[in-house]
Write a structure and sequence with these properties.
Helix content is 79%, strand content 2%. It is built from seven helices and two strands, in the order H-H-E-H-H-H-E-H-H. Helix 1 packs antiparallel against helix 2. The termini are far apart.
Length: 183
């Protein structure tokens, strides 16, 4: 999607702001009292409940699909992006829901005050990073196994894990150690 690193960074920043906006919208949607929605519940009760529950995961799925499509410097099909984006969106939503339940029912927030908020925020950042990385890896594996393999752009640099890079280019010390052990 984005051709240059600058365009990729800009698209990720825009999607990040959209994600932040969707989180704030989900908080506002949850904060609406049921008394205000009573007339709507009488007419469309099950539909409003369904919308309240599934709005956030659907929005998260779309935003993560944009990230997984725009961020890598590679050609990837939309149909290969959406399973990983859906998994990431649902896990992201579940994490937010569980943290919300914890904050609502926890006495630690009242005992430790702002310190507990800092720890919860750090846990949320850690969880979010792992979920996004898990979703990206899931998308890569899904595309390679069930879809069309991801093809990097011609100017993209292929990164390999540290263990593979050490095997590919051994340093002089490990080569000498290996030679001594075989003799």
């Amino acid at each position: 999607m984005a051709g240059t690193p600058r365009e990729s960074a800009a698209s990720v920043i825009v999607v990040g702001f959209l994600l932040l906006g969707s989180i704030l919208l989900a908080i506002a949607w949850t904060a609406v009292p049921d008394d205000l929605l009573a007339p709507v519940y009488q007419r469309l009760g099950w539909l409003v409940t369904l919308a309240r529950v599934w709005t956030s995961p659907v929005v998260y799925t779309v935003l993560f699909a944009l990230i997984f499509k725009a961020l890598p410097h590679a050609t990837i099909r939309w149909r290969d992006v959406f399973p990983g984006a859906a998994l990431t969106g649902v896990l992201f939503w579940l994490g937010g829901y569980v943290i919300g339940l914890y904050l609502g029912a926890s006495i630690w927030a009242t005992v430790f005050g702002a310190a507990s908020f800092v720890i919860i925020a750090l846990l949320w950042a850690y969880y979010s990073a792992w979920i996004i990385l898990f979703g990206a890896k899931f998308t890569q594996i899904y595309a390679n196994e069930f879809g069309q393999p991801i093809r990097p752009y011609r100017y993209a640099v292929m990164m390999m894990p540290v263990a593979e890079s050490r095997r590919a280019q051994p340093d002089a010390e490990s080569t000498e150690t290996l030679q001594r052990s075989t003799n």
